[in-house]
Fold each of these.
Amino acid sequence: MAGRAHLVSILATAVVLLAVFELVRRRRLLERYALIWLGASVLLLTLAVWQGLLGRVANLVGIYYPPTALFAIALAAIIFLLLHFSLAVSRLTDQTKILAQRLALLEAEVRERRAEPVTGEGEGDGVDVAPQAAESSV
Amino acid sequence: MVGAYPVAMTPRRENLAVVPAYNEEATVGRVLADLREHAPAWDVLVVDDGSTDETARVAAASGAHVVRLPFNLGIGGAVQTGFAYAEAEGYERLVQVDGDGQHAPSEIARLEAGMDADASLDMICGSRFVGPDGSYRPARSRRLGIQIFAFILSRIVPGRITDPTSGFRLYNRRAIRLFARDYPHDYPEVEAVLMLHFHRLRMREVPVRMFARGGGVSSISPGKSVYYMVKVLLAIFVGLLRARPVVVPGQDHAVRAQSSI
């Protein structure tokens, strides 16, 4: 029974490692994220193959059935990965927000400049023209 | 109209009213008309937060500057666009006037009077609950939420806070600079009070009258209010633990000391 679990865990982790490798090869996965996946799968594969190490780790944390330790470590790796992605999404959200704001402000400026008659070309002039325009329409 | 402010002689601009609007075509025209009538000294910037209706067209037809966000960012992102604009254009003061008609432009003068009375104040917040006009009665669940926030904030910041969720606020240049760099994403008002405090900026509440919404849909539906509570409470407590800038109060570069988020 333990032998079969051993085999399955080696197979499973090997498949993950290969899948990540293939995704990077096809440029579908950014190296930045691939590194973490590669690290996690190499770690799991090492533990799956090297039963002695897994046994020792299991013993250390008080798990009697070593393959369970493998799953526990895999779970920890997944949680770490998810947290990492939440960070990435948060950063992207923030950056997207700033981009949207800058885009909107630039668009408004371009629109205003195009619509405006050729009155104030100078930089200093341009500053003065807008508020007057706004007030004249009041 | 220009009157007291000879435009050619002031390289900096004075007053900017920021009107965040998300699908407010029914009310934004009225708000802009009121602004023209009651606050003629204020330039008006409408931030259309990715509306799917005619909000932007109505606003532009009223003669306001209109900035259209490419998609909905939420009230925080929309108002921050106004801060960014005000900072870039060199405005000295910014007032937020919601596009739903809740905030009465005729009350802006009260906010201004509050800031004029004490030059060390960086933000004046219009409160519905202080003063003789404190007759505003929100729904019970909402009032409870407001009271909880008010209670917590009043323990943290100096002075009493009665209306922490009010968005009817007047900001000076320092506050504009702070919030142009960093403003909370959604439901920003409560957190902004904390940020202000941690950056050693000062605020005060003044009584204002507010109206019930003139139309459209509030950004806070009953279903979301629990999420709102939890999110803002989290923001408060995380904010308390965040590294604080060490600056001398009143110093001009207070705003730049910030590094977190």
Amino acid sequence: MSAAQIELRGVRKVYYKDRIEIPVLDKLDLDVPAGQFVVLMGPSGSGKSTLLHLVGGLDSPTAGSVRIGDAHLERMNERQRTAWRSRNVGFIFQMYHLVPVLTAAQNVELPLLLFRMPSSERRKRVTTALDVVGLSDRMDHRPNQLSGGQEQRVAIARAIVTDPQLILADEPTGDLDAKTSEEILGLLDLLNSEFGKTIVMVTHDPRAAAHGQRTLHLDKGALEREEHRPAAPAVSAAR
Amino acid sequence: MTLTYVLMQNLKRNPLRTALTIVAFALPMAVFVAAISFVMLLARISADNERELRLGVHHRITLTNSLPDGMRRKIEALDPKGERLLAVCGMRWFGGRVPGTQNTLTSLAADADTFPIVYSDVDMTDEEIATWNRDRTAAVTGKGPAEQYGWKLGDRIELESSVPPYMSLEFRIVKIIDRAERANFFYFRRDYLNEARERIGQPDPRCNIFWIKCKTAEGLRTLQAEIDATFANTPDATKSEDENAFAANFTQASGDIPGLMQVAAIVVVVIIALVAGNTMMLSLRERMRELAVFKAIGFQRGRVFRIVLAESVLLALLGALVGVIPTSIGLALFPLKMLRMGPIGQLDVSPIAVLVSMVIALLVGIAAGLWPAYQAQRLNTVDALRRVA
């Protein structure tokens, strides 16, 4: 994928619970140009996370098409989507989800285990990724030796170590205080403005949403409205 | 970093649980390797016995019912040309103990002239046979008592009988048997015992068993039938059996040990499979979100399956090693022959038993990990991430 361009057409997603149909997204159309920082907002159950999962290839639509760059995700089976994810998407979660028995560097290295790559190249990439998030001095620390903000930085380094064009963040600041949240959001700004990553972020926090160039408000599985902001100036990695 | 490294690190996640699981594997595996070794030992003894072509003739009712001394001539008369029968050796139980000790040695008085022939596997040299024939107090002992009591060739020793008339006899060691199968036996001349009994006015030249060395397996089978037919319907009716059947009956007299061993081995395998399976399920539940992240970042279902399965196998193999290695070392340092417990006394851990145990551990590890690995493979990434988000 040269540059992420997200195109959703007539996307419908339905879950079933005890044979009862629960529609989550309905006839959703969306276009996100490459290099845009998009924020998804909306009340619980509005379909934000589902949309994020569809764009990330974690789930497939019940109907409609999801195209990311040249990849038509709705045509792929699970195995193909998993392989696609490993090369093209970086995930950032609210609770970081680091492996507690591995060091920061080893956690960042995990996605690289899926690629045939000399260990020297792996080390170089891990060091670069941790450098970008400002944690090169914490490489050998385990998650329990890091603060919440530092853990999320490690998670961000893990998301970018394979150099994906698309980064998906599911409430990345939901578990952090205001100051640390700003640092993390500054990092996302940096990845977007300096490294040209397309970012889709789910959040409930309007201050976090202010970092995106475009905010999509979802309600009951449909796009309710959207706001546009000019691209933020480049921000250096906050510490 | 490799995935193997990640696996090893995973075992450190909950060190206490890992340690307890390894111990839960190790203890049964120690029993298991000993059980397998014992079964193999019995098989080895059985094969040796089969080669020796010895037929035991004892009273039909019990071994303690003695048979008349003259029965030897009658048995020999069944094969006057010596086509099937090589020699007959009458034996009498002595039950000797070293004065001041409680251990009863497997001590038997044997016919002096035929003992070296019937028990050719004792490997007596011509010189040793000459000494045996010359010295009425001559005794042949296994390595077990010799090592326990520090007996050397030429030593004069004393044994007290544990059966009436409770005589005390002095012997001279003329041979120490190397063979493990005879490690706990002690043989001496029956004419010496008979004379001693006459001296105290209690002559009784009867035997508990006659061991017959046959020339061929076919000869052994025909003699077995002929002997029992010859003495049927007499006060001294006999039961003849080859050495394996005799050993099996003897062992079963004190309980079906091989059968118990087999049952114990099966129970052990089932228990450790359940323990390991339970541990893996617990571990899986704790790491649901982590495995979901693995899948999200691109680990295929098959790879996740293999990670969980490999962890189970690793636990099983570690447990087996921790159980088998100390057992092997322990049995080498403190051999059970010191306990004088029949065949168990010869128990040592064979490399094949170790190999079998490791293979069993591997299979148990796979069996215990299959279901958790399957669950991990089927894990719905979206659901798992949602549940913990």
